[in-house]
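Bit of a strange request maybe. I'm writing a small parser for structure token strings and I need a real example to test against, not something I typed by hand. Could someone generate the tokens for this chain?
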Amino acid sequence: MINRVSTASQYQNLTSNLMRKQGELNQTNGQLSSGKRVETAGDDPVSSVTIQNYRQQLTQIDQYNSAITLANNRLQTMETAIAGVEDNLGATKQKVLGMINGAMASNDRTAFKDELISLRDGLLELANSRDEAGNYVFAGNQSDTKPFMEASDGSMNYHGDNQSRYAQIDKSVNVKTSLPGDQLFTDVPNSYGDFRPVFSDKSSDGAGGLTDGSKLHLLSATTSDFSSAEAIEVSFNEVDIAAADGTTTKEMQYNLTVGGKVVAENQAYDSEQGIVYKDPAVADSATLNLKFDGISSGDSIALKPAQTINIFDSIQSAIDNAERSTLSPAVEANLQRVIDDLDSGFVHMNQQRSEVGTIMQRVDRQLEQHLDFELTLNQAQSGLEDLDYSKAIMDMNQQMMALQASQQAFGQTKQLSLFNYI
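Reply from user aminoacidic:
Good idea to test on real output. This should exercise your parser:
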């Protein structure tokens, strides 16, 4: 029998070397095909751990970017709705001004009333705005509950809560994506301060109310302690004051009633300072500050405690007074109060819109940070994971040459026998 000169050990070493070189070439071919230097942990254990960490961070950034997209959609919907509310309040104010300043026939007042009702309905529609997912924007956390509905008495009731929804756009960054409807529409700051005027015409027997032709207007009404605020009544009367030289001057005087109790009588009204009252019998009692203009002798006005207003109620007041003649001083005063409310409402909405704009800017800045960090991570991951094609091609050529040499050597070794030495 013919025996090989090579030993089993030599044969095994040559075979292992051939398989190793073939494996190296296959790996390089695989890398060239995928474009990746590291495909499994075995390719580079140290780099593989770092690459996996980069992938987890990139996945998290994708989740945050998706949350940012959702937050931006909601914020844009809310900003658009609030801008619509501003336009609505501006248009309503112009209608009310037209009712005050113009002498209108009965059918004109009816037309104005219809337009006010239309504007009120448009405001209600904006207050019940939905986002792209069908959620109510101004319902707080009760996003599937219609926030504003008209009651049987014509008032608008809020059915949401006073919370805001949030979106997490980074590990420790949460931003508002909604505003509660009561904050926007039913908690509008009272433009007068802590009290609201209640106007009525003087009755035929001369009791209470505004006199014919009165232009009485409340400028401000505040208290240093709202928790103790009570209903107030103020009446004015102009009297003749005799001087020592026999001449007389006109002086506007007032009577002040707080909580049903007369606390000041026949006091001179200072148009610059207004009425300042502090109960002398009570230590640390609240201080009242009341200022008026357009006062006529015989006017009286009631003030009720209120720090906020419901903008729907204000517009309803304009609707209720639309068909009444502005020859009534109370009607004109009530319409003027509506204008003051609308001015306050417009400023309030502008502030809320600014808040939304600030949140949107913050979200945009966070998105830019995510995009920058994402680029950095991708570059770092690419540096560890991606293949250097030039180097890989050179390696493949060398591996092919080494494999061919090994194959030739292996083939020659397999052919060796005793006949080569006979």
